[in-house]
Amino acid sequence: MIKGDNHIGRSLLNSRKNAYLCIVKRQVGFSGALRAALAVVALVMWGCSSTKHVPADEMLLDKVSIDIDGDSRAGTQEELINFLRQTPNHKVLGFAKLQLATYSLSGSDTTKWYNRWLRSLGQPPVIYDEELTEASRRQLRQALINRGYMDAVVTVDTALHPERKRAEVAYVINTGEPHTIGSLDLNIADSAIREIVETDTMLIDLAAGDLFDRNKLDNVRATITERLREHGYYAYSKELITFTADTVRGSKVVDLTLNMSGGVERDSLQTMRGNRVYMVRSVTFVTEEAAADPAMADTVDYRGLQVVYGRDRYIRPSSLYDMCFIEPGRPYNARMVDRTYASLSRLSILRFINIEMRPAGSVGDIGLLDCVISISRNRKQSVSLELEGTNSEGDLGFGIGATYQHRDLTHRSELLTVKFRTAYESLSGNLDGFINKRYSEYAGEAAITFPKFVLPGASRAFKKRMQATTELALSFNYQERPEYTRIIAGVAWRWKWNDRRRDYNRRHTFDLFDINYVRLPRSTIDFIDQIAPDNPLLRYSYEDHFIMRLGYTFYRTNRRIPTPEVNAFVMQPHISTLRASAETAGNLLYALSSAFGTRRDDGAYKVFGIQYAQYIKGEVDYTYTRNLNSRNALAFHVGAGIAYPYGNSSMVPFEKRFYAGGANGVRGWGVRTLGPGCYDARNSVSDFINQCGDIRLDLSVEYRARLFWVFEGALFIDAGNIWTIHDYPNQPGGMFRFNSFYKQIAASYGIGLRMDFTYFLLRFDLGMKAHNPAMNQEPWPLIHPRWGRDSNFHFSVGYPF
Predict the structure, then answer these.
(1) How big is the CA angle at 662 (ends 658 and 666), to the nearest 5 degrees?
(2) What does the pLDDT read at residue 481?
(3) Cα angle for residues 244, 247, 251 (degrees, 5° grid)
């Protein structure tokens, strides 16, 4: 039993042992609480036998290892372990079988709900099976043979401990000398196909000296087939591509010949030749209504396409034409089919899309295809309501929102979205504040999303080629506090488009213009003079100002979308994500002001009597995740940004500056409580406005481990800070200097608990300060941490990076 200043003990009766838990209540430092928590966990683990539910005369598979002797190219233990038919129970942090321990807490009576609940959270013991061990040995050897190690030998060394009911298995691999590729010849009778293969040097990713890897040969077959299907060879399949291997007795060098035949495949209607080029004869769109009731069908011809409608002509033929890249009279192209799928999916009015190619005879050596695209309609209109609770720095509140959507505004599948939101917040942190002292907000937004590139003067062919959506958005926000009332209005025009390069999905957003106007129509008589007589940052935030910006955002990732059946950890060993953005504001207005000789007011140009901002800003964030296995991962993140005011501005607008700390930053600090530089903030309320900067740097590393059920654990280290471009009097110590900035990089560490529900993730992180760069504060709280002063708890949705 753990003793403390104040504790309560209660015992848990177990059929084999007694374990004691204590609820410890001690006003001690963080290290003492951590030791107490670890002790409690250790007692629980000790009180549960991992072999409790192992049947008599059976053994727990306690440990499995793979020892590789020979060529290092054969693979690592982490890669080869995926071929085993049986592996031990999962370990957390490499030593604690938490899931097995949870399962072992349950009793043998499964009619009781708490026993069933514990078993559903945990993992049953893995029972050693000699047949599965032998099957694993055979699969390991076959995997090595497929990689070119024909002479590989796999043996099994088993250590059985019946008295402890445990078994340990070691797979010992002797790779031997691998077979490698010596030369590659092509045996392609069809001259047109041969020209395609020989012209594209990227198709055959094989070279002399490479391993004779059957998986790689299969990838070459798939790549060639995909390219041929982009050149009209609709019926070609990789089964028509084979490799002939020739070796000399006693040699490990393999001479390869790639064979491509023009064999035939049987279709339900006719024989289809693999080496025949197929032409698209017709393209027909068929709505769900027309397919269900052909008697009511009505066909419309539009620019070579046919659209078969039912009673409801909910989408215009021109909109379908703009989204279709399959053209009658042109060779079949699998890539154009994929582009058509992607483009039609941008039409919000469509719920289901299916593209079918139907053989339609031939003309000479040219095959013919009829393309039939089946579509079904989505709901035209929808309304949703949202209710949320808020807690901002201890101020309690709630918000109510409503969203209306119309998915087919003018029968061109334009998406109209109208949102309204109202929120109330108590500024005193209690319910009385809703009556006496409150913050209220009313917000509205209206946006129209066009499913194509919209730009006056652009040709139709150019708009179709861009494959972009266009968004026009208007926003309005009304904020009321006891001290002032503020109105924020905005209008934006932007384009968004996606593309794919190799294994990366890319997203682009280009803001042609984004205008924000902030106005205070009513305020307390001397409100600004009272709160900010000498603080230009605070004065600028609560004075009328105007921002007209232009920006571009680029996002690239190779992350695959996980499904309920397949977790992202299993799917990909390496995941990288890059996000970069750049924006500038005020240049056009400044050029016009200078050209027309506009008079300056207080040293700055104004528009409608309001000074406009002029600045340039850029950001970049890169994340790399290495999935060590299906349950453990290491994630790395680096981010940087800079904003520079010039021309009409001496300072970047407050809402465009960077901040540090929070759930997605250096987690030892709360949001907007770190920096800039070594700035010493003593009051989170009065210093809130000062803790922003023009330069940011973020560095993080995080270890993630799946625990049990939906729970994941994490250990993390964060570093970073923000700095200012200029030496502002109200932010002493905040200016970036090359000879000292590295001393001002803050650091923190911590632990996290996450709940992964596949489609969203809840995150709870506890961060502790390790290095505090602020002046007049403890610089190294890592040595003597204090709970509260050096800790911060964060709740958020989604991973931090």
Answers:
(1) 85
(2) 74
(3) 155
CA distance linking residue 795 with residue 713, whole number of Å: 14
Q: How far apart are CA 504 and CA 575, in angstroms?
A: 10
**What tens digit of pLDDT does each residue of 271-319 get?**
566 678 999 999 999 999 999 888 888 999 999 999 999 989 999 999 9
Question: In this structure, is the dihedral angle defined by the CA atoms of residues 794, 538, 773 and 638, taken in order, positive or negative?
Answer: positive
- State whether residue 34 is helix, strand or coil: helix
Q: DSSP per residue over 326-376, as a string?
A: --TTSB--HHHHHHHHHHHTT-TTEEEEEEEEEEEEEETTEEEEEEEEEEE
Residues 6+ apart with CB under 8 A from 94: none
Q: How high is the pLDDT of residue 535?
A: 66
The pLDDT value recorded for residue 2 is 35
What average pLDDT does the structure give for the chain? 84
Block residue for tokens 């410890």:
24
What is the full DSSP assignment across 570-634? HH-SEEEEEEEEEEEESHHHHHHHHHTTPPPBTTB-EETTEEBP-EEEEEEEEEEEEE-SSSEEE
Those residues whose C-beta lies under 8 Å from the C-beta of residue 164, and which sit 6 or more positions away, are 51
Give the C-alpha distances (Å, rounded to integers) separating 592 from 118, 514, 584, 604, 764: 71, 18, 16, 13, 50
Handedness of CA 26, 27, 32, 33 (dihedral sign): positive
For the chain, what is the radius of gyration of the CA atoms? 33
Report helix, strand or coil for 724. strand
pLDDT per residue as tens digits for the range 123-166? 899 999 999 999 999 999 999 999 999 999 999 999 999 989 99
Residues in Cβ contact with 138 at an 8 Å cutoff, skipping those fewer than 6 apart: none
The closest alpha carbon to 3, from 35, 48, 41, belongs to 35
Angle subtended at Cα 282 by Cα 279 and Cα 287, rounded to the nearest 5 degrees: 140
| Structure tokens, 64 | 């499995």
Bridge partners (DSSP) listed for residue 438: 426
Q: By percentage, how much of the chain surpasses pLDDT 70?
A: 85
* Diameter of the chain measured on Cα atoms: 98
Helix (H, G, I), strand (E, B) or coil at 456: coil
DSSP letters, 151-169, are T-EEEEEEEEETTTTEEEE
Distance CA 196, CA 179 (A): 29
The CA distance from 229 to 535, in Å, is 66
**Residue 617 banded pLDDT, cuts 50, 70, 90:** very high
Q: In the sheet that 153-161 helps form, which strands lie side by side, from edge to edge? A: 60-69, 166-174, 153-161
> Is the predicted pLDDT of residue 96 greater than 90, yes or no?
no
**Count of residues in the chain:** 801
Q: What whole-number distance in Å separates Cα of residue 36 and Cα of residue 25?
A: 10
pLDDT of residue 526: 56
Phi, then psi, of 780 in degrees rounded to 5: -125, 75
pLDDT of residue 788: 76
- Tens digit of pLDDT for each residue in 701-748? 999 998 888 899 999 999 999 999 999 888 899 999 999 999 999 999
Interior angle at CA 647, CA 643 and CA 651, nearest 5: 45
Which tokens belong to 721?
């800070």
Q: To which residue do tokens 């043979």 refer?
A: 145
pLDDT the model gives residue 171:
95
- pTM of the full structure: 0.80
- Residue 88: both structure tokens together: 């031990």
Grade residue 684 by pLDDT with cuts at 50, 70 and 90: low
Rounded to 10 deg, the angle between the 191-199 and 214-229 helix axes is: 110
Higher-confidence position of 90 and 339 = 339
